[in-house]
Amino acid sequence: MAAGAPPVFSALVVGAGVGGLTAALALAQAGLSVTVVEQAKTLGEVGAGVQVSPNATRVLFHLGLEAGLSALAFRPEAVEARDWQRGQEISRVPLGEAARERYGSPYFHIHRADLVSVLGQACRAEPRITLRLGETVAACPGDGTPSLVLASGERLEADVMVGADGLRSLVREALFGPATPRFTGNVAWRGLIPAERLEGADIRPVAALWMGPGAHFVHYYVRGGTLVNFVGVVEREDWREESWSSRGEAADLRRDFAGWHPTVQRIVEAAPEDACFRWALFDRDPLQRWSRGAVTLLGDACHPTLPFMAQGACMAIEDAAVLAACLSGCSRNDIPAALSRYEDLRRRRTAGIQAGSRRNASIYHLRPPFSWARNQVMKAGLGMGAAMDGLYRYDALSAADTG
Ligand SMILES: Cc1cc2nc3c(=O)[nH]c(=O)nc-3n(C[C@H](O)[C@H](O)[C@H](O)COP(=O)(O)OP(=O)(O)OC[C@H]3O[C@@H](n4cnc5c(N)ncnc54)[C@H](O)[C@@H]3O)c2cc1C
To answer: How far, in Å, is the centroid of ligand 1 from the Cα of 305?
Structure first.
């Protein structure tokens, strides 16, 4: 090492979802050498659409992904909330150029597989990153030592370790003990439909939210406008499977949204018979601590977030930027302090978004007369716009300097 050059640390990242891959890139760009361990054999096979708001595109662009993402994303003109049956507009918040001007970064709708594949390509092109796909982490110590054991029996060690292994994180369980996630009583239907199958259905170029009693329905374009992504959330107790690839019966989907506005009906009718997926929605209360010793958590592993603010992946992306900034330039002995600083900077914001997302489920699903009151509040411009503004202005790239 040249005199005066910062020390090169090694990092282990468990999980190559949106959070793990973004963390790997951010850490590598901060000078660490990173090994990512992911149980899936390939990256980005599954999933549907994901909304990536300016607070997250800002980070992704900083990591050099603007061209790759812009080529695959769709830029919505606005978020529009409507009544489930009559379709009248309840609230409209402009996005598109307005978002870019206001926040300095755009709002994207993107296929999750496209996002993961752009992140994966960038990781492969980064010489400091080693991707180990098809390897399951079987165990790691709970005392904050940055090491793990793979299912093959191989042991890996590093200077710092990040558990980005999702809602059922093994790293979190090792650090803080077992805790069963809570079923929220909501099940999400999701699917993708070629846009040409919806010609004449008046699918607006927006993030469309339809709010009904006990359910809501969201749709938007992805893959440059060639596919329409939908997510339909219904209150149900009889389905508890949580997987991007659990199929449901298209007939059940149609039954769940029978009587809704014709646009929603057109979408559920066009949903492919063999590719309607159901995802039971679980969450957890915020953790008091995310780190122990030289091991920390990131993304859904520490703050699983319901999709009702479209922020779970965005929070994981923000985490990655703040973590890298905290570790950048610190000495090996300072790693535990840097991780404490990272979680101190992030816990309040992510807990607020977890709570806000949970709250939105009940707000979206209100029944009359409460839904009438909600609509009046939203029509008066209160609620959605102001909440989004605070959310999107957050700059994860400077949070470690200013926090
Ligand atoms: C229906 C739905 C819609 C959503 N829409 C949005 C949206 O529009 N915008 C948004 O920002 N968020 C959205 N979210 C939330 C978002 O999907 C999650 O918050 C985000 O994917 C979390 O990313 P992560 O990297 O933390 O975890 P994950 O994506 O869960 O990744 C964890 C990774 O770790 C791997 N792994 C786990 N255990 C091991 C192990 N032992 N060994 C090796 N690898 C392991 C897994 O295979 C996986 O690849 C939505 C969620 C749902 C369910």
So the answer is: 10
